[in-house]
Amino acid sequence: MIDRVKSILVSPKTEWPTIEAENMPHVKLFTSYVLLLALIPTVAAFIGNGIIGYSILGIRVCSISAGVSNAITQFIAMAGGVYLTAFVIDFLAENFGAKKDFDRAFSLVAYAYTPMFLAGVFYILPSLSWLAFIAGIYSLYLLYIGLTPMMKASAEKQTGYFVVSLLTTIVVFGVLSMILAAILIPKFDIGTLNLPKFDLGPINF
Length: 205
Description:
Order of helices and strands: HHHHEEHHHHHEE
Number of helices: 9
Structural class: mainly alpha
Mean pLDDT: 82
Strand order of the largest sheet: 1-2
Low-confidence stretches: 187-205
Shape: elongated
Number of strands: 4
């Protein structure tokens, strides 16, 4: 697993053909790779939001419930995101002259997500969570160059295939994320904070 992570990050152009030849079933890849790496952002989100917390106007905000909610959200977003993106890529394959094969689509997305999985460690410090976005850009690059060896997309249609797949995934994932956030993430209640009280005679704050 360590060798695969290193290879896909350092030399993806030579690693994709190797991955394509393996043709690993998506269930096996999920349990042996995705599930383990998805724990990185999950645990980090719990620590960052539930134990370390962050500051708003000088007030430290953190709670175990927020940590649990964010951890669940991260896990569903990462693990579920692999399946969602793979489904979209497989669904659109024939429209761009690519080979329809869900196992290979899943392998493509799972390994392309590797930088985002690893960068999830930055969620330990909420102030550094933006670095996960940078890792996401590299994940998109890995996804793009993997379309041809994994899905047999032609060079002429590779860019169109990538763009349409990406936009479709963003729209669907955005809707699902809003629903998930509304259900899992607790609403911020300023009344629960221990703010100082000021007594100005008849007027109390």
